[in-house]
Amino acid sequence: MRIMYAARIIRLGIFPRCAGKQRVSRRALAGAVIVLSCLGCATVGPDYVRPRDTAPQAWSTALDESLKAQTMDAQDLALWWRALYDPLLDGLIAEAVQGNLDRKEALARLRQARAQRTAAAAGLFPALTAGGSSTKSKQGGSSDVSTSYKANLDAGWEIDLFGGQRRTVQAAEADLQAAQEDVNAVMVSLCAEVALDYIDLRTTQARIAAARANIAIQEQTFNLEQVRYTAGLGDALAVQQALANLESTRAQIPTLSASLEASTNALAVLLGQTPGVLTKALSVPLPIPEVPRQLLVGVPADTVRNRPDVRKAERELAAQTARVGVATAELYPKITLTGSLGTMAVSSGDLFTAGSRFYSYGPGISFPIFKAGSLRAAIEVQSALQEQALYSYEAAVLTALQEAENALSAYVKEQARRDTLARAVQAAQEAQSLAQDKYVAGLTSFDTVLDAQRTFTTLQDNLAQSTGNVAGNLVRLYKALGGGWSPAAPDADNHQNPSWGANHEQH
After folding, report:
1. pTM score, two decimals?
2. How high is the pLDDT of residue 143?
3. Which long-range contacts (CB under 8 A, 24 or more apart) does 461-466 make?
4. Do 234 and 323 fall into the same domain?
């Protein structure tokens, strides 16, 4: 009501009802300025209200004894890879924080948003401009050329009566916070991708080691059959079957070697280095990182609060809500205070004398009367964008919960699969040894030996993959929970932030 009343006063000031008068009523205009000055705190448009928390109270996935629905310490979540107790992985993540190009790009966007916030805030303050000129002029057919000199200082200030500029600053501030969350989101993805590629590398090395161990066993079987065939105790069929089994296992090595090189190159790129740089440093096989026996996973609400993508979507909603206010403010009057102070003379020597001085000041007012509905259409556009931002935020929440539930389920189920495969490998290894002994003693056929070797080779490879999947699913779970960044970080531009493991041991 106060805003509508002020607008009415301004209308009366611009178009007074006094008959025969064509100029602005000074009394009405002065009254409008006084009233609007009292309304300096008025801010049009909707005030932002954070969406209420809709996350469920508990996970729908049944947690096993290794998982507990208790809130994780913020620092432990930020440095989740330390739970794998692999100093080399610590060093790789620290180097990735320093050199990753996606993170550098996100930091550049953050600096851009910070500068835009500063530029938006500048609109709340008066502007001051200094100028000067030297002008030559000639009139009509006269041959005389006159010269004039001018030096001036101009000031202008648009009074933010209806909060349009303040809403602009609010939007810019929210954009800055969204850019910060974008940096955090890059950190979450970066730490997870480095760990996943590292685990893939160690898993591939384990698979290669298992394949080579099986090749050694199968070579012994092949050599034995050759000796038996030469001595007339065996047949050519058994020799060829043993050879086929051996070459089938050997054929796995090139594929696994290519996968190993791909993982190594992927790690190099994540660290901002050229492919091949890490080949020598990572060539020595090491065990697949072992997952901790106990893990705190919090509750769904913790995930929503920790996920930078959800936090970013919420800040984008806040920014768009402020932009509705920016568009709404265009419906209301604008009052500008201007002033000018300077000197003007026809001689440079007289430019700074008392007689050459001039000044002017006074308020100016503008009010939109007819724009064919464009202003209200602009409000409708911003309101529709606000609605889209709300749906985007709600979708981000659901996606976060979905990814967390899927990661929990995958982690639990893969652990059960790995344990089963471990028992199967142990049994297959014993069966292979027994089959070999019985075959030598003439108590079983060679087909039994081949089947036992194939089964053991396959199960051993599956166990290596499952062990890597358990570690990888743990990484995906930490990523889904929003781990890898610290809300206590002093500045995202600080590359030496200890919250990102920059002080860990380097490889």
Report:
1. 0.84
2. 66
3. 461/207, 461/210, 461/211, 461/252, 462/421, 463/418, 463/421, 463/422, 463/424, 463/425, 464/203, 464/206, 464/207, 464/210, 464/288, 465/203, 465/207, 466/414, 466/417, 466/418, 466/421
4. yes
